[in-house]
Design goal:
This protein is mainly beta. It contains six helices and 26 strands.
């Protein structure tokens, strides 16, 4: 085991002295030497293996739509089945049911929030759900849904009889307008908008809760209809009503009737409702061959995690053998180099990964936990160093030192791709803002993959020790 010793300082004192002094007194036969040093231990072996992560919790506000086939990645497609949260207040002043002009489903994505070819034309169709969704519908398992989708919609009741064509290049002229998003705009039946407006006028209690609204309008199924080569990441979905508003305007004591064109968002996908990505993932033979050859692959969504055997016992053994009774553990860091996998669709490593004790992974996501730097740790991909770096594992090793006798459950971890949800608070005008992590979910943002070079992983363990020589 390799150790590097950094001497902080040596102070020689007599038994009659209470502090360091420029003059050393040598009264008596006893001379006490107090020596402090920092030890850096950095030679440890990390091992691991790829393991299938076919079951993922896909309930998320993020929605994926599209399909692609990449020989280096595999086949991936995703469709959407979702409820909507209604607005509590509708614009009814000067508006009648006959003033409703049109209804549109708007799906927003940030520029570049897609995998594949931005120009390839693809098609979608929209169907109304014929019964409500429930929380028990999620999570799905790749290729094996927990319910037949056909039970929830009628193929003959399509709200887009003419397939909606879209690309990811200049949707809805947003690039021309220099907007910070792109929009897939889908026209829905005018009759739906009028029925919606009439329900609000006659039964406003329908809009009081998501559950009551879902009885009136269960939601939508959004299906790929043709095309391949792109998957878009939709970060917001709304349904807008477009209508005319009648008003009276007075100018120079003259009052006249005026008609305004208006629009409003009357329902949207929010965290309070059920929305599910129906993911179909088939890994390529090239990825399977790499795993068979011993490569440690991260592939998402519904691909591979990596099981990691962390050398906790070796770390503690070296510490106990060298630290002595007077010592303090300073830091424990873990850096994993990454090899990007060449492909034609610009599929990159996951932006964020979670290192969590394997025995606690399912509980972590089921209970919506946040990484605690004790049994779970978060790292972001550093594209400059091509690595994931866990910089704060000190409390974990302290807990293991206190526990004493360890089992495999104490040092067997799972590394899995995740999506990090954050919120920002403070006054942005004065630059006084702070970002908080509010959620860590299984990765559902789009295709991602990389290989971990565990044989080159670096663990840096530092501690201070003090020795007294008489």
């Amino acid at each position: 085991m390799k150790f590097t010793h950094l001497f902080i300082g040596i102070c020689t004192v007599t038994v009659l002295s209470t502090a360091c002094d420029d003059t050393v007194t040598t009264l008596g036969n006893s001379l006490v030497t107090d020596k402090s040093e920092v030890v850096i231990d950095s030679v440890f072996q990390v091992t691991g293996s790829s393991e299938r992560n076919a079951e993922i919790q896909s309930r998320t506000v993020t929605q994926l739509l599209g399909t692609l086939d990449a020989k280096e990645y595999g086949h991936f497609s995703s469709e959407i089945i979702t409820q909507f949260m209604p607005s509590l207040n509708l614009d009814t002043v000067g508006v009648s049911i006959d003033d409703i002009d049109s209804v549109k489903l708007l799906m927003f994505m940030l520029p570049g929030s897609f995998t594949g070819d931005s120009l390839v034309p693809m098609g979608l169709k929209v169907y109304p759900l014929k019964k409500q969704l429930t929380d028990g519908m999620v999570p799905p398992v790749t290729n094996v849904l927990p319910y037949p989708v056909t039970d929830y919609y009628d193929e003959s009741d399509c709200w887009t009889p003419q397939t909606q064509i879209y690309t990811a290049n200049a949707l809805y002229n947003d690039s021309v307008n220099n907007l910070a998003y792109r929009t897939v705009s889908v026209s829905l039946p005018l009759e739906f908008g009028k029925r919606f407006f009439n329900e609000y006028l006659n039964s406003p209690q329908t809009f009081a809760t998501p559950q009551a609204f879902a009885q009136f309008f269960p939601g939508l199924y959004i299906k790929n209809s043709f095309g391949s080569g792109r998957v878009i990441n939709i970060n917001e979905s709304r349904i807008n009503l477009y209508y005319k508003r009648h008003a009276k305007v007075t100018t120079n004591d003259v009052t006249r009737d005026t008609i305004y064109n208006a629009s409003a968002t009357y329902m949207a996908v929010t965290p309070e409702v059920v929305t599910t990505n129906l993911i179909d993932m088939e890994l390529s033979s090239s990825l399977s061959d790499m795993v068979a050859a011993g490569k440690n692959l991260l592939v998402a969504p519904a691909g591979y995690d990596v099981a990691i055997n962390f050398p906790t016992q070796s770390i503690l053994a070296g510490y106990k053998a060298n630290a002595g009774d007077m010592s303090v553990i300073n830091t424990l860091t873990f850096s994993i180099p990454v090899e990007e996998i060449t492909n034609d669709y610009n599929i990159n490593p996951p932006a964020n990964v979670l290192l969590v004790l394997a025995k606690e992974k399912k509980e972590f996501f089921a209970e919506n936990k946040i990484s605690d730097n004790k049994t779970s740790f978060l790292a972001s991909y550093n594209s400059l160093t091509n690595s994931y770096e866990f910089t704060n594992m000190r409390q974990y090793i302290l807990d293991m030192l206190e526990k004493g006798t360890l089992t495999a459950d104490d040092y067997t971890f799972t590394l899995t791709p995740v999506t990090v949800v954050t919120e920002t608070s403070g006054n942005g005008y004065y630059g006084q803002t702070q970002t908080y992590t509010t959620g860590i979910n299984p990765y559902i943002e789009g295709p991602a993959m990389c290989a971990l070079k565990l044989d080159e992983a670096k663990i840096k363990f530092t501690y201070s020790k003090q020795s007294i020589n008489n």
